[in-house]
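Quarterly update from the structural biology core.
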Amino acid sequence: MTSLEKAEKIRDILDQKKALDIKVMKVGDLTIVADYFVLANGTSTTQIKSLADEVQYQLEQLSEPARLEGKTSDWLLIDSSDVIVHVFLPEAREHFNLERVWADAEEV
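Predicted structure, tokenized:
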């Protein structure tokens, strides 16, 4: 599975679980950390935990590595090597504003 296919699969998983404001950003030309970032909002800490758990579970079913970070916060991160998923509460997403930090990234 290519990085783009993985990012699109994650986007679809998040969409099916009712995540809000989902964005896929191509950051591979800007950093060595990952090829893509996937950003999404949840409406509560319970929902963002559920979204992150589902992404992690689905990736593991595809034999893709997926490590979950920040299990008790308003911003959860799933590190899947070439794709990093950020699941936020809206206030945290606005505060950290990754879209501005990575403004040079191409939105997919």
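The chain has four helices and six strands.
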